[in-house]
Fold this protein.
Amino acid sequence: MPRSLLWLATLGLAIASPYAAAQTPSQAPYRDVAVVAQLPNASATEIGDATPINAVAISPDGRRILTGDQQGNVKLWDLASGAFIRGFRHAPAVSAVAFSPDGRRIASGSATAKIWDGETGRLIHSLEQDAAPGINAFSFSSNGLRLASGNNDGSVRMWDVLSGRSVAAISATSDSVTAIALSADGTRVLTGGQNSEIRLTDTNTRDLIRSFAGHTSPIRSLAFSADGSTILSGAADSARAWDAVTGKPIQSTALPPWTVTMAVSPDRARVLACCNDQTVLVSDAETRAALNTVQVTEHGITALSFTPDGRRAVLANDRGELAILDDVISGQDLRIVNRNTPDALHAVTVSPDGRRLLVGGDRGKLLLWDLEGARLVHGMQGKAERINAVATSRDNRRLLSGDRFGDRFDLWDAQDGRLVRSFEKDLSIHLAATFSPDGRLVLAATFDDGRPVTGLWDAESGALVHRLDADGSERAAFSPDGRHLVITGNGAPTLWDVATGKLLRTFDIAGSLSVTFAPDSRRVLLGSEGKPATLFDVESGKAVPGLQFPYSDSFTFSRDGRRLLSHSTEDVRLFDLTSGRLLGGIEGYPPYETQAVFGLDSQTWIAGGYGRTLTVRDVETSGILRQFGAHSGPITALAPFPAGARIVSASADGTARLWNAASGELLATFVSAENGEWLIVTPEGFFSASADGGGLVKLVRGMEVYPVDRARDQLQRPDLVAEKIAGDPRGLVRDALSRLDLAKAIADPR
């Protein structure tokens, strides 16, 4: 078995190498070494929206952080370095996480509870409840043999950790249990509720021992003192200490009225109050004096936890970020270990020769990747706030980028990354600039002498070649043979001669918005919102009888011209072009698959979208043949290679990924980080990177994190990355992996 495993920490979600699945214990013993790529945190529930962290816990030794988020991801982090260690998948939204006393076991709670081996990622037990009421809080007994879960229905379930069996069910409160703590001997359980009740219950008899009254808001934290004589509680209104025997209050620290969540340090010395203005108030629990106020984050704080020594605190926010306050007393040394970078990708295309990849995204990000050299050629800064349309010329000399709904498109020199010219346009014109099939011309809308104009421009010089009097241009397409151009807009669609720039005819369909040529260039599909899309004969300009299709945002012809895919934010449909018959598709809300392309043989089609995976379907039945991939954000664009054997996906998670379209094997992940750094990494852990981009890669063994420098000479192999991108045709990657010994590199760091 290979000694190297790769877990891509894309948005914190671990993706196991095909050579070793993280969920299979026999394939991922903790003795093996994992290569982890610390990718940018751009997690998204929808495009542009981040995934909130709901729960945070810190290991008993203070060295690890555990988080659970709204998308069902449980993630383990190294506190000192902020490095991602591994991920555990627990859907749906995770609302509670906890470490066992020895730090080796991990509990996660959602509708059900799960217990994991933290050192291997192996699922040990799935703890099923009869009614699956939803879990809000956990507490392990001091010996780690019992686990208590506090549930939405007001109950507490006691679990045997070794067997995974439920050993007791306790009715704790009339409302949701929001906090829970087991006594050291496991004979008493303390529960706090959404209704501000605190109750102490005997776990053996299930009888109520006593209640503690005084809080006026939901209970957020509970704990026993080391000797069990004192009980600590926290809520948005105050932090309190109680006599465990009499139930009488010992101490109370009032909190600001704008407190949203809080925590008490294990030594009872300090109280953290997180406020709705994104600040944290640090108070002395005994004197009630404010020690300091810290501006922690620009976003709402959703969870927090102290380290066992009470000197540091970890806070999570609704952008999926973790903030570590390394000195609680002074309020200094605040660091964000996984800052969210909202650079979602929105467009991707493969050059006609299949040698380069062009990707566009948020903040004008435009990336040109060289696939044969396994490197970033240029990282350009487009003027559009969001780049959702990109194109490359046939000779690879020119690039286009822009926002179809924005005010400009840019023409770039691919050799030196220089901006050749910009096409500034009126916001009402949604025409995306594009190259003619031979790459010599650019179709674009812009201003000329202050007047809007749609025209054909010389791709080399940027000079106007032909002015086209098209009214309110919306969409356009060149015929594959490059002879004709159809433009849709406010009026009827128009057909133009590319060589002369002359108008040839109009088509009899009003307000057409979509235009797609068939592969033979003899037919064109025109559609108008709210009306059927109609197939026209280009030469005669007449509609082809009987071939009308429901309008969609986008259409794609199969390579053989026999079938048609329509895909929008609502559905994906497949049609037979001979009869016009609907063959199948995907419908329903939410729209999980909104991007679709045909496979090389036209016998399959591949779809992706909000479901974050790629699905290969049969063209005859639309049945699923296979699924692959695991972006951690919605898939925003798909591009097949000219030869069809590979496909690339772009995602709101900020990464582009290259796949073998036939087998579904991940070939490489492309990452652009801050400050121009970049990384291309394969599933085996081999990578190519910029000067500091290799710093995104870490080595993990069990729960220990090591710098990649210990094995850089074995892993930083651009030659092997290029070989993998090509599909490893000579078996060089497979051979190098068989000889890789990362355990030795960690043991001997010289």
About this structure: Residues 129-254 form a domain with the Methylamine Dehydrogenase; Chain H fold (CATH 2.130.10.10). The first helix runs from residue 712 to 715.
